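Researcher: Batch entry, complex prediction.
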Amino acid sequence: MRWLMRWLRRNRLERELDSELRFHVEEESRRLEGDGIAPGEARRLALASFGGLDPIKEQARDARGTRWVNDLWQDVRYGARLLARSPGFTLAAVLSLAIGIGANAAMFSVADGLLLRSLPVDRPGDLVFLNRAGLDEESMRFSHPAFLRLQAAVPEARVAARSSLSRLQLSRGSGPAEIVVGELVSGEFFDVIGVGAAAGRILSLADTRELGGAPVVVLSHSYWMRQLGGDPNAVGRPIRINGLPVSVVGVAAKGFSGMTVGNPVDAWLPATLQHDLGYGGNASMDDADPLKPWVPQDGIAWLTVVVRKPSPASAPGFTARVTAWHRAEVEKQAALSEAADTRAYRLRERLELVPASRGLSPLRDTFTDPLQVLLVTTALVLLIGCANLASLLLARGNARRRELALRLSLGASRGRLVRQLLTESLLLACLGGAVGLAGARWGGRALLIMGATGSTPIPLDLPFDWQFVGFTLAVSVVTGLAFGLAPALRLSRPDLVEAVKSGGRVTGAIERPSRLPLGKALVVVQVTLALALLVGAVLFLRTFRNLLAVETGLDRDHVLTVRFDPRLAGISMDQWPALNERLLEQARLMPGIRTAAVSQMTAMGGGARTTTGVAIEGRPIRQGPEGELREDFVGPDYFETLGMPLTRGRGFRAQDTAKTPKVAVVNETMARKFFGDADPIGKHFGYEMPPDVEIVGVVRDARIDGLRQRVPAIAYRLMNQYPIQLASTLYVRVAGSPAAAKASLVQAVAAAEPNLAVREVVTVAELAERTVARERLVSQLTATFGLLAVGVACLGLYATVSYSVAQRRNEIGVRLALGASPGSVRWLVLRETLLLIGIGVVAGLVLVIPSFTFLSTLLYGLSPRDPATLGAAALGLLALGVVASLVPAWRASRVDPVTALRAE
Amino acid sequence: MGPAKADLLQGTLDMLILKIVGRNPLHGYAISQRIGQISRALLQVPQGSLYPALHRLENAGLLAATWTETESGRAAKVYRLTRTGRRRLEQEVADWRRLSEAIGLILQTSE
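Model: Structure tokens for the complex:
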């Protein structure tokens, strides 16, 4: 950086050079005077021995090595003056660059946060998760006893366990309770991943020594700042979580929010508090009692295991020991099964070590594909912007031909001119990049809001760091070179000297008819890319529309849902049936209500309770997906409320109670899957031998899991027969507008139980739309970018055709003078436009669209080569292109032959 | 005209300057005087290339300069050799010796 210092101090250096040379001349003259030469003559001789001062100064300046900085500075100032002189062009160019660069930067920040970034833990590369693969469904969950056995089997590795995330109700003295995200962890969790405390202490082994134990909690730094204002006295303060008094012992290090990217944890609690907290997160159960503490039970797999691998050198055979532990676990589990095929199925399980450096993320699985599509989309938008700016610069450069030609003929090197023109492009690109950077912050956040399934944005950190700024800067520079290089090379061609001789008149010195003109090629490129984006946008919009129009088998528009959790309000299990009755009672008092019902799962809610190896009367028990059955516990009026008609048998009746035989209604898929064409009514199924639940009815299939998901085989059991089953959803079917009934439903719940926190009241239709949130995101963004791209391409077309008309003014004047009609002149221009668009469209259809097959998995109800979509996009583009060229065509027909010819 | 003078070989001016300044710190004019003494005898050193060369060597960190007062009470820019400059000088002298020995040898054997 010494050159920078020298450049900044250039004025002082210049003065010093002056006095140094003056000193030399004066000393030399004095010496000559001493030899008896007259003073004036002595000075002349002294100067002459140098052969002139200025060349020496110039060489000394070169020796500083800062000449290029000078040149650059000069070019930047010159470029800035030029841009300031045409504010319209500058504004348009900077804006279009800002959109292109900003969109790419926003995508980068989201992709970086979601796909690339490592967790803020110590040496994340050494951490692995254990994954149970080989069965029909993979799982990462292990029981607590199995986790302890793993620790004993690999003493050389550090092993920790964590539960799945769960909502907890947190209350701090006064004020309303809040819902926070909690994670139960083993005592060594923080130690193993290497996350320290920002205040107080982290959890330690002492906290999980005994079941129950002293109730403590560690809060996340973000929660601490957000809700407690970073109060250092928060540590040691008692709070209540799910009604249990716990004390805050510390705050985890800043930036750490758990191992699930996109789902930040607010509170970490010892795993040994599972029972006391009434924690009931995701778990796989097998011969277990979920109502008893989970920690000692071998049959409840609920913990993800995080292992810090020892270095292979220090612990050879580590992987083998982990695998051996897993084998022993699998064999022990399999031995419990009586049926031979069940045993064989279980023995198929094998262990995988999954890198944990980037954490877990269901979001990542959902959004990897759409993000890739969007990254390609924004890259194409930027590419179109580049082609567009290149053509604008080319057209603008024509106005500067004289200036450039003059400088060439005065001896400026071509490299120097190219450098100057490139500096101008880079200046534009960097201006666009700076605006884009600000826009990208906003855009990234908008993306998180648009991609969210609920009302809150995706909780993902989008840090403003050097990676983000560096990426934006790099994109800006590459963009500047991309759109600046071709015009710079073209405009600095030495044969431009001709332009000086011709006095700046339009003679076609730049556009040689024998060549493919660069400007037109650029327009074709823009049309090609715009077609690709337009086709993509239409495909995704139609996919989204197809999905919304899917027949769900539910009356989604008239059913309101409200979700609640009595456990969080500290309502004990024996109070649940009474609570359900009060809720239904209050709901039935609402104006405009038809029916109301409760259920355990929420339609379109994502929750699932699946069992495999179900016993079916008269059928062998089957493992894996073939024996898989979903179940839900629902209230009596459930089918009527959701608008699901019975196709066979009967629904639930008031006479079905906890004391009468168990009954269930199954859906058509369940009936088909387990009974084929046979009548399932009167048959029994269950989890004990002999099966004890009688099928009394069959209900029409409904897409209960979401608009894209297949209908599962599902059995609805009557909640009233199982008092210990939790109801967490209340459905209300209303006659009028569901929006108007929302407020009265909130009131109804409050009237039934004031302590019950209500997450939100939404219609089933709204829930259904959330199941296609990523399709909505992709369709909205591709549509936006598609329109932008078409707009930019039309602008490019307009500029190029206008320029071509200006260039051919003489010819058009001659034509008109010789009697050509204005109409034929207009057609002349339009024909050229149609040709350019035509080439672009054909190129798009032939070269780009075939690569769209990779979109197939994201589309719904149509193929990536859907002819109607392709045709509509091509015709639309053609029509817009014609509109864009109407003005230049009209202008061409209005050329005054006299003026045009006089200019010749 | 005096006896025929040899042209300065490319790059040897730098070595000369380093050598002269290496003995004791000097200002530009004094350096030119020293070179003048040599050039009158043997070598053609263009006066004009002295200052660009001084600046180049200074920017390369081989010379360091300070403004000091001369006996006549005037400010002059005095150059001295830096540690890197001294290493470079030793290396260039060694290189030069090897080269001239080699050329001398060739000239002897081919006579």
